[in-house]
Description:
By secondary structure, the protein is an alpha+beta fold. It has five domains: 76-192, Pleckstrin-homology domain (PH domain)/Phosphotyrosine-binding domain (PTB) (PH-domain like), CATH 2.30.29.30; 195-267, Orthogonal Bundle (Recoverin, domain 1), CATH 1.10.238.10; 270-342, EF-hand (Recoverin, domain 1, Orthogonal Bundle); 360-517 and 533-655, TIM Barrel; 673-803, Immunoglobulin-like (Sandwich), CATH 2.60.40.150. The protein is 32% helix and 22% strand. The protein has 26 helices and 31 strands. Strands 12, 13, 14, 15, 16, 17, 18, 19, 20, 21, 22 and 23 form a twelve-stranded mixed beta sheet that branches. Strands 4-3-2-1-7-6-5 form a seven-stranded antiparallel beta sheet. It is globular. One of its GO terms (cellular component) is endoplasmic reticulum.
Amino acid sequence: MSQEQWECLERNEAEQRMGFWKEAGSLPECGSSPDQSDFTYSRKDTTEITVSALTASIQYALWKMETPRKGCELGQKQLDALKAGMFLRKVKSRLWKRQRHYKLQDDCKTVAYKSSWAINTYSTFAISDVEAVREGHQSEALLGVADEFPADRCFTLVFRGRKGNLDLVAESADDARVWIQGIRGLMQNMENIDESTRLDQWISDWFSKADQNKDGRINFKEAKKLLKMMNIDMNEEHACCLFMMADKSESGTLEDQEFVEFYKMLTERREVLDLFQDYSSNGEILSQCDLEEFLREEQLEGERSYEHALQLIDHYEPSDTARMNHSMSIDGFLMYLTSSEGSIFNQERQGIFQDMKQPLAHYYISSSHNTYLMEDQLKGSSSVEAYIQALKRGCRCVEVDCWNGAHGEPVVYHGHTLTSKILLKDVIATIANYAFKASEYPLIISIENHCNIEQQKVMALHFNEILGDLLLTDSTDAEVSGQLPSPESLKKKILLKGKKIRNETGTLTDEVSDEDEAAEMNKDSQSTDDKKSKQNLCKELSDLMFCKSVHFHSFEHSQISAKANEMSSFSESKARKYSKEAGSDFVRHNCRQLTRVYPSGMRTDSSNYCAVDMWNMGCQIVALNFQTAGMEMDLNDGLFAQNGSSGYVLKPKILLNRERLFDPEKPEERENYNPLLFSVRVISGQQLPKVRQKDWSIVDPLVRVEIYGVPLDQAKQETNYIDNNGFNPNWNESLQFTIHTPELALVRFVVEDYDTASRNDFIGQYTLPFSCIQPGYRHVPLLSRDGTSIRPSSIFVHIKMTEL
């Protein structure tokens, strides 16, 4: 297709969109380019929408992105190739390589695939679930077949969350290029889509789903199925009434404009409209003064309310006329409330806002346990991909368990188990490549060393040669000054933590194995294996250690003799024991020393413990199994979502004061004790996902608010459930909590599908630090079990905090 044809297509699409959104007098002049026009969106005059508009915009965006590249003929031809589909080899290992037919669906947002033996059954994945496309042999599976398939035919789709990657081999380099560039182009278009186009897309999606016979119109039978798909259980009489109200042509079907009217009736946000009218002087618009009053009274913005009101009108109000009059329509008000500014998470705390020049021991550090594992601790696979995923999530302390390998090459795996083995040098190379992509602050590598002298020397060689200048080994300043350097001073540096040689007797010997979970599991039968692990320690490797692993004797011993760069490791049970028996001493210890906590060795299923108890003590390196989703990882993700998701969070002052020690068991004895009353009014939910994909299945949602922190703050309360409505449930219920130590509290919002006969099903959750919560009317964006966004699903709440 020529450039002129594409520009014509773009103009047609723009006309379709403006026909749907247009407001009198706001159309661009004839001949102007649609992307240069200042579109005005209003729902006052809804005239037309077509399903092809989104496809056209994606096609044009892909063509526009790829055209400048010489030697590439892309655009419609490429999309046609993707939609026609082709056979690609899915690769899991050298022995597992299967042909699958992959094709892009007509919505340009979904890829369908099926096995060669399947007749009509296709599985699908969404383009929006793809996080990255890697070219060539950039996975263990593809590296394993590198001698069979050249790099230019290979690529990997990396999915968001914990979903495994998809390794593919095309029949030719050209075919691979079609898929690589095509998927990337579609991903970029989706990322760049604006809110108005997103709404167009949302409506188009529902129209397409409802129009099952693809005749461009929807009959009442299709409308009833649509309600089920939208998670709405509506009696037939009411559904018929809405259908007839929208059917202006009285044809018994809904065409484009009529469907938009039907959709508007279903999605009307009555609770937002009521709030809007409460503050509107005339019931139709919010003047600048009206909006300023809302921001001051409800959102508690104080003196900045006047200036912020103008900014919000300028940024979110879709009507030119309203903007010129410094006023906001209901559309603009809703756009503000559903934006990041209307989110419960304070935007000012999303970037780096904390002092990063304090000693390392003053920070919580996002930490992974047995980082190499993708699954359980007994027979799960080890993979460099696990390191990539952890580092991309902001993890700043990873673990490497090193054992003697074949051909003199150390390997990484969970010793004495059936977990698979990977080469240490591959792990180090992966760490070097991904260490600072998500955060520029220092990365700690915790080494569990079970190798003999010869392979320890190989370890030292790999660390030196692969990490090079990234590696910081000189800890003299920390030993002399008595405190560790700051994250700011250690940017783009990698620190190794492990055993160092004690040269007190003039010998170069020490125990190689750390006080780790292997030792914990073998307490009763460790005599033979543990004796074997007491070997000489290689000086070359010892000299690379910045943090020295030491056995913990007592808090008194540490206070008198411990050096700042020495670190002790505690199992979760030992850490809990010390927190109960000597909480204040534990807090004092963690003011100066780094403490690492790891899961019990009995957690062979890679389950996690609750890290909050350890954070209450000021423990910095609380290692979790990143591969295992659940409440424990939700709390970890919530804590480290602040401060730029850098993996470093400054501990509150109460945990850094050595003179007046804090005891989490007795928060009322702290200095400046000011408990808060935390009130949450759970108002409504929006477009909750279906738990089961059966046509008849509709969720009965409830919301639970959970508080995690010091023992006195631990609490849970939940709303009643709403029968058969996951699309726009309305609770309007108030929950109240007393927060004794706000600095340490985390708040988790959980939405579940109520079940009378069995355990409730998980729908979504969102966790954040109490200190990052914005008061007022806020939307809480929901995340999946894997921690990925399930937009546009959210809950609407009102937050109030009052001093007691």
